[in-house]
Design brief:
Length: 261
């Protein structure tokens, strides 16, 4: 990757969350359509993994990395479920008809006292906040990337594309050992620079994921970007926390990505 000089390097200071400087894009090894009209050098195959999920619903196909995972535990067999487990299972299927019992929900069913509130918390974090679906999916993808949760990232790529995030933006999210605040600043934030709010949300999310805390300057900058509403910061933090829990469940039980019906 070409090194940026002091005069061209983009600095994202938390208090001001300065806007994107197009010069930086010219110095990056990846060039995207978001950068002054450069043709994209990133392709589907350059985004990790051997499998590719057909997009559908007017979204492009996208790469996956966890479809071949062999799960350690998928939850209790249907014929061994208690009435309470069956009731939770039916509720999950009713509210998630496209994906059903996939992701972390199978293992959670083993303990109804965990499964039911987990399902309800997830529904609240996903669908009942004031954040847009695009903003929520950006937070979820950053969370999955930070925790090396390949299934979480795979599951939400399609949702992120449907919400309006581009493949270029998704591919710019640093993953696994590459995840760091510096990589988020240099690779991802320039592609979000048209929206100060997007930059602030991504910066806040990445800082909390990497350092487990938020500096006062980041707190105040993000608060300003979301209109002074601290309830929005609670929502962002809640999504990060919930999808960290999801990521740990997926990783512990080696849960694969399952394509939607």
């Amino acid at each position: 990757r070409a090194a940026a000089t002091p005069s061209t390097r983009m600095r994202f200071h938390a208090p001001s969350l300065v806007l994107f400087n197009p010069v930086v894009c010219q110095s990056r090894a990846f060039r995207t359509r978001s950068c002054n009209g450069f043709s994209s050098l990133r392709t589907v195959t350059s985004l990790r993994g051997g499998d590719t999920a057909a997009g559908g619903d007017d979204i492009p196909e996208y790469p996956t990395t966890s479809e071949s995972f062999v799960p350690r535990y998928n939850g209790p067999p249907i014929d061994e479920m208690t009435d309470e487990q069956r009731a939770i299972r039916d509720d999950i299927i009713r509210t998630r008809p496209r994906t059903g019992i996939s992701g972390p929900f199978g293992p959670w069913l083993a303990v109804p006292e965990i499964g039911r509130p987990s399902q309800e918390l997830g529904r609240a974090c996903r669908y009942r906040t004031t954040l847009s679906m695009r903003e929520s999916e950006l937070i979820i993808l950053l969370t999955g990337a930070r925790h090396k949760a390949h299934a979480e990232f795979d599951i939400h790529q399609g949702e992120a594309l449907r919400s309006g995030l581009t493949l270029d933006t998704i591919s710019a999210i640093p993953r696994d050992e590459d995840f760091s605040m510096e990589r988020v600043k240099s690779d991802l934030l320039p592609l979000l620079a048209e929206s100060k709010r997007d930059v602030a949300i991504a910066f806040f999310t990445a800082e909390l994921l990497e350092t487990s805390t938020i500096s006062e300057e980041t707190y105040q900058a993000t608060l300003k970007a979301v209109g002074g509403k601290e309830s929005v910061l609670v929502e962002i933090t809640g999504i990060i926390g919930y999808y960290t829990y999801v990521a740990y469940t997926l990783n512990a039980f080696n849960i694969p990505f399952v394509r939607s019906k």
